[in-house]
Amino acid sequence: MNTLNLDLKDRSYPIYIGQDLLVDKNLLSKHILSNKVCVVTNKTIANLYLQSILETLSSFEVIVVSLEDGEKYKNEDSLNQIYASLLKNRADRDTTIVA
Asked: Are strands 2-6 and 13-17 parallel, antiparallel or unpaired?
């Protein structure tokens, strides 16, 4: 695994590059601040990886938002779908969002 650290002062974070990172419970868990996680995906990626990440995050309350695939769906309606799901599931400022 390679790590690229994105330096944004107090908002800095690492970017991990490698194989099988979605099934590394220790890696993901150390970045989750509460017991609630929102996974934002699209239908194509969900078919490939959603089950693996749900198993990895099985000790957390997981909210899944699955959007349509394609550039034309990267819009305000999709953003509102994410917001609505976060509100419906009582997400708070400590909820981690994984995309």
From this structure: antiparallel
At 45, list the tokens. 């990626």
Average pLDDT by stretches of 10, the chain with 99 residues: 93 91 89 94 95 95 96 95 98 94
Q: Is 78 helix (H, G, I), strand (E, B) or coil?
A: helix
Torsion sign across C-alpha atoms 91, 94, 95, 99? positive
What is the residue whose two structure tokens read 């419906």? 88
pLDDT of residue 38: 97
| Burial of residue 91 (number of CB atoms within 10 Å: 0-12, 13-18, 19+) | buried
Q: Tell me the C-alpha distance between 82 and 14, whole Å.
A: 24
Tell me if 95 sits within 8 A of 34, measured CB to CB: yes
Confidence at residue 65, expressed as pLDDT on a 0 to 100 scale: 98
Amino acid at 18: G
